[in-house]
Design a protein that fits this description.
- The protein is mainly beta.
- The protein has one domain: TonB-dependent receptor, beta-barrel domain (Maltoporin, Chain A).
- The N terminus is likely disordered.
Length: 928
């Protein structure tokens, strides 16, 4: 059953049919009945959100709409729903399609960026919890299928417009901003022509809003410091051979307080042309385009030396710091970030029915996402003297601070020595550093599919077969034009410092964070600093964008399936379903760059050597392939006229993210102030930007469900499921050969591999929904839905730095220091509760969503563990009919300002928290 808030039509409108006695149900009630009917009729276990009319999905974004479906929950970014997890399992285990086709994204993973698609232009959403052969690939957790309207199937003319105003209280706190006000407008048109043989549908939307944010964060790299060696006050990293032999505590490299002002714009156009020249042919062409740009102004207070001067360290049995004293340089950093993401997708589908029994379908599709991101960053650092040349009370650039976790709070309290005035611009001026970073991700999918289905009589009702071909390419680069370091004369520093000063951009910074004592600091105008120091506000990109961090991955897939549908009686019990098999072959070609290095003599000791970059690169290609056989069976037993019992068994696969398949390797030389005897000794570290040899994660799955449909408006269902995985993910050290100055060197490189471990997940999914139409008026307008998913998993994901590590040379595992995480996105508990009331022209709805903690990996893989804390949000929606076809609508998101908290590298060790605030929308919709 869907979330049922927004439709402005009455829930139960009776109108006479041609027969004179048919009840025509529309509005909210129709949407509920459509969704329940889809679940009942589908052969696989499916939950749906279905609306006959365009614009009736009850949410501001597709992601928000999906999280109201049973078993679906979301990861929040910028206060909105983004990636979707099914049954408490992360987006990595799900497959998402748009009009039945794979969709690209700009994140480097396989989840669809649901924020790109306005819900007003989407007509239906299905989530397949179990698999069937015709889905071809599917996913371990399920398949999310997003659909847009086909104009001839819609069958009527519709012109609709809607405009909404947004108000964000956090935006009202931004100095010189828009006051937290934004808007979004949507216009759509559907019609049929030429005796209903040609239909068109077109929709467009402009979204212009703002999403300010305030946050605290530790860096993305955490180390284990020896607790028995703090005499120097600096962190001595615990070596792997000492794991389990010495006490330790966990600290990041840096701490950052960040204030973000933001503007967000999106233009979207969806279109479809359907042509049905005869009963034999049905041709549909659809196109989707979305262009989203947001601009962030970031102002950071950075404690850049989180491992320096550590004393009085208090930590618990897990190494989580409770309190410490430290010394760090302080930095006032400013950056201007602009991200543009353009999506273009669509396809042509041709159906041909040469006779009453045979249907042939050909489909070709294209999907492309280009994400570009430019960030200009400037750093100003503390010094023993201020910008006027006056010595401060501190002997050096490092300022004392304390770090403390207060009881009952996940927010650490960082207190700067009170002798240091954070708001004094004079104190931030030294070591001016400028960077320009540019990231570009290009994800493109070409795909073709052919299906044949033949209807039969008897036990087998239908036989179908098909083939699918696709080619996915993922390319990215991440290049830096910098670092530009400046140290001009003192007078010049003073002039620029005074010229580019800026008032703190926000009032009441982090006032909602318990224990926080840092509410503002000295900030500067980034454009002004770039202009004065560098002579330009934007130094531009490098002419050569090659980097060993770049990825160039091509994935080709060839798949085929055969499926039989059956319909029979088992005694007195009707039974229907399907069974079949899929074969999926995947070939991966990953091209990576190796930075060129040359041997140079050490300046102090010519008998020793150092390594220096040459600026040249070598290309290395790593290939991988796999073939997987995926059988499936579904059975539905109609044990009573209103009760169904379902069984399903299937094998499923989930592929690694494209960004996790990079072949690039970054070699970092050791300190060039020291000399070394060999090239191996001069190599400090080698970082891999992916693991091209990763194979799909495989699982065997079983589901059993009981569903009761007492009436068209009600549903009670329970599903138990079990998944057994073959192979998890484990850090591994592979020996790889590099050519340095003409000499071949073999060194170990940490990556991720498919482990031979077995793991499992079992779970329970419950749904209860009804409309209390049996109550006396006016209470008969009440309705409710509650869904809950419980999952238990013993999957293991190791920390790349501090977890177990496998050595293929010795076939041994070196024990890690910290416990592993579960599978990415796994939450043990997911709950969604909805209550709605509709009487006459008024519709009201409240939605509560809860998700327990989960591990979320970084895009690209080969990273440390990161956990997201439990979240619960409350949203509210209302609509009022003003006249026929015109309604006033109101929505409120995250009513109680629920923050997002993250932890690293173990749960409980505070890494980051985000505050977004609530958002309010009011608008008017008209349709004719």
């Amino acid at each position: 059953m869907p979330a049922v808030a927004q439709d402005s039509a009455a829930a139960d409108i009776a109108a006479p049919s041609d027969e004179g006695d048919e009840i025509v149900v529309s509005g909210i009630r129709a949407t509920i009945q459509d969704s329940i009917n889809v679940k009942r009729q589908e052969t696989a276990i499916v939950d749906a959100l279905s609306a006959d009319d365009i614009g009736d999905l009850p949410a501001l974004s597709v992601g928000q709409a999906i999280q109201t479906i049973t078993g679906a929950t979301t990861h929040r970014e910028k206060g909105d729903a983004s990636e979707i997890a099914l049954r408490g399992l992360g987006p990595f285990l799900s497959n998402a399609t748009f009009n039945g086709r794979d969709a690209s994204n700009g994140s480097g993973d396989r989840s669809v960026n649901f924020n790109q698609f306005p819900s007003e232009l989407v007509n239906n959403i299905k989530i397949y919890k179990t698999q069937q052969a015709s889905l071809v690939e599917g996913g371990v957790a399920g398949t999310i299928e997003i659909g847009t309207l086909r104009p001839l199937d819609f069958g009527k003319r519709r012109l609709q417009g809607e405009i909404k105003a947004q108000y964000n209280p956090y935006g009202d706190r931004i100095v010189g901003g828009s006051g937290g006000v934004g808007w979004r407008g949507t216009l759509s048109y559907v019609d049929q022509f030429a005796n209903d043989t040609i239909g068109i549908a077109i929709g467009m939307q402009r979204n212009d809003t703002n999403n300010p944010e305030e946050t605290y964060a530790g860096s993305s790299t955490w180390v284990a410091c020896r607790a028995d060696n703090v005499a120097t006050g600096n962190c001595t990293e615990l070596k792997r051979e000492d794991y389990g032999k010495a006490p330790f505590f966990l600290v990041p490299n840096a701490y950052t307080f960040r204030q973000i002002s933001e503007t967000d714009k999106r233009d979207a156009v969806f279109g479809s042309i359907q042509w049905r020249p005869s009963d034999q042919f049905n041709i549909n062409l659809d196109v989707q385009y979305s262009d989203r740009t947001y601009v962030e102004s970031r102002r950071d207070l950075n404690l850049s030396e989180g491992r320096n001067g550590l004393t009085n360290v208090e930590y618990d049995e897990n190494g989580i710091v409770q309190r410490l004293n430290g010394l760090s340089a302080l930095e006032s950093n400013g950056s201007e970030l602009s991200r543009s993401e353009e999506y273009l997708g669509g396809g042509l589908s041709i159906e041909w029915k040469p006779n009453d029994r045979l249907k042939l379908t050909a489909d070709g599709s294209y999907s492309r996402t280009i994400r570009s991101e430019v960030e200009r960053n400037v750093r100003l650092r503390t010094d023993p003297m201020d910008v006027n040349g006056v010595r401060t009370v501190f002997n050096n650039m490092r300022i004392p601070y304390t770090y403390e976790i207060q009881p009952g709070s996940f927010v650490p309290t960082i207190t700067i020595d009170p002798r240091f005035d954070l708001n004094n611009h004079d104190l931030f001026w030294d070591d001016a550093r400028f960077r320009r970073d540019e990231v570009r991700r290009h994800n493109e999918i070409f795909a073709g599919r052919f299906d044949a289905a033949y209807e039969m009589d008897g036990f087998f009702s239908n036989i179908s077969a098909g083939a699918r071909w696709s080619q996915l390419t993922y390319r990215d680069y991440d290049v830096r034009n910098g670092d530009f370091n400046f140290n001009p004369a003192m007078a010049e520093d003073k002039r620029i410092n005074n010229l580019c000063r800026q008032a703190f951009p926000q009032t009441d910074y982090l006032s909602a964070a318990k224990g926080n004592g840092i509410n503002s600091w000295a900030t500067f105008d980034v454009d002004c600093l770039f202009r004065e120091y560098m002579g330009t506000e934007d130094p531009g990109n490098l002419a050569d964008t090659r980097s060993d961090a770049n990825r160039d991955v091509t994935e080709r897939t060839l798949a085929g399936y055969v499926m039989a549908e059956y319909d029979a009686d088992l005694g007195n019990v009707p039974v229907r379903g399907n069974f079949g098999v899929r074969v999926v072959n995947t070939r991966v070609v990953s091209n990576g760059l190796r930075s060129g290095l040359t041997v140079v003599p050490n300046d102090d000791d010519p008998s020793k050597i150092n390594l220096a970059p040459t600026g040249e690169f070598d290309t290395v290609t790593i290939k991988s392939s796999s073939t997987r056989i995926l059988p499936s069976i579904n059975a539905i037993f109609e044990v009573a006229p209103d009760t169904q019992f379902r069984l399903a068994g299937y094998r499923a696969m989930s592929r690694p993210n494209p960004s996790a398949l990079g072949a690039g390797r970054r070699i970092t030389p050791r300190d060039d102030s020291l000399g070394y005897d060999t090239i191996e000794e001069a190599i400090g570290d080698i970082m891999s930007n992916g693991s091209p040899r990763l194979k799909p994660l495989m699982s065997w799955n079983a589901d059993a469900a009981i569903e009761w449909y007492p009436n068209k408006d009600s549903l009670l269902s329970a599903t138990v499921y079990y998944k057994q995985f073959s192979g998890g993910f484990q850090p591994v050290v592979y020996d790889e050969t590099f050519t340095i100055d003409g000499e071949q060197i073999t060194v170990p490189v940490a990556q991720t591999r498919n482990s031979p471990d077995k793991s499992r997940i079992y779970g329970l999914e419950l749904t209860a929904a009804t409309r209390f139409s049996f109550l006396p008026k006016p209470l008969d307008g009440l309705g409710a839905k509650v869904s809950y998913n419980y999952a238990d998993s013993n999957f293991e994901t190791q920390d790349i730095r501090l977890g177990d590590q496998y050595d293929p040379e010795t076939d041994t595992v070196s024990p890690g220091l910290i416990p592993p995480a579960n599978i990415s996105g796994y939450s043990k508990h997911v709950l969604s509760a909805q209550a709605y009331y509709e009487i006459g022209p008024v519709s009201l709805q409240a939605i509560y969503n809860y998700r327990s903690k989960y591990f979320q990996d970084f895009v690209g893989g080969n990273s440390q563990l990161r956990y997201v804390g439990p979240s619960e949000t409350v949203d509210f929606r209302a609509s009022l009919d003003l006249m026929k076809g015109v309604s006033l609508r109101f929505e409120a998101l995250n009513l109680f300002n629920e923050p997002k908290s993250t932890y690293m590298p173990i749960y409980g060790s505070s890494r980051q928290y985000h505050y977004y605030g609530a958002k309010y929308f009011i608008g008017i919709r008209a349709r004719i």
